[in-house]
Amino acid sequence: MRVEVVTPGLATSVQDAGRSGYYHLGIPPSGAMDQLSYRAGNLLVGNPETAASLECALLGPDLRFERDTRLSLTGARTRFTVDGEPQPADTVVDVAAGQKVSVGFATAGARAYLAVAGGFEVPEQLGSRSTYALGGLGGHRGRTLQAGDELTVAGPTSPPPPGREIPDELRVPLRKEYELRMIRGLYDHRVQPDSMDTFLAETWSVASEADRIGYRLKGGTPLDFVPREAPFGAGEDPSNIVDACYPIGSIQVPSGQQPIVLHRDAVSGGGYMMVGTVISADLDLIGQMPPNTRVRFTSVSLDEALAARADRARWLDKLRAALVG
């Protein structure tokens, strides 16, 4: 089945669970920024939970479907309509051949996920259908959608009936303020202890420079660095280090001014020190932060991070139990 892209939205892209195993070669994982909402959408329409969906950032697309189908919209709250008629989020929705599906501006959260029964069919590249636009890899022609594009949906399938919903207790909550748990290191020793305490105590806000590569934060006090003699291979700026690898979620602070949290399309290494790394269980939250969202960092231990990861896995198990079968 073909799907016409009437208008593309702000930065709509095909995403799946991501591309693992190539970050050491400079190819990031990509994939849905909010994996929980993405997987919930697929499960809702009867797809494998890692089928390809559309990630709609801040403003979604207008799409026209060639045949009857069923779909769902999860994640960010938007004005979601079929031929102008409002439709519920987190619910299986019927769409007839020729109807136009519209995903408007996000009114809460930042990214909505449009899952269609059967899943979007684009070629796998390096084991994933996810778009890595910076590298022109994967998705639909390696880029975000444009007006006039034609997408293909796999099928036929036997999706669940319209009206099926995600239980209230398993819907992803959307807030205006978040706490992000982080593990300190590898370079927090470069910051004066009282300055690091201030970093953790203050509330930051998401800047306009926030995308799939990284989230810049503003509004806090600049870091105070421990004096040093710059090592060979590092620049003179106190935040420079000899080039090192970056994990997804790492928090670098160029010149000590504004933290940048790296996300799923980030570069794999560089020369800025990192004060810590946001734990994997909290990375989905970042994907739902529009500009001006308020953020605080909380330092946790590795054991606490692993416990949070296990909690997230149990939440997914409950979602599968509620929607599969």
Automatic annotation (TrEMBL):
Its ancestry begins with: Bacteria, Bacillati, Actinomycetota, Actinomycetes, Nakamurellales
Q: Which GO terms describe its molecular function?
A: ATP binding; hydrolase activity; transferase activity
Know the name of this protein? Biotin-dependent carboxyltransferase
| Matching SMART domains | AHS2
Keyword Transferase annotated: yes
Q: Which organism is it from?
A: Nakamurella flava
What superkingdom heads the lineage?
Bacteria
Where does the Carboxyltransferase domain lie? 24-315
State the UniProt keywords alphabetically: ATP-binding, Hydrolase, Nucleotide-binding, Transferase
Under the heading InterPro entries, the entry gives:
CT_A_B, Cyclophilin-like_dom_sf, PxpC
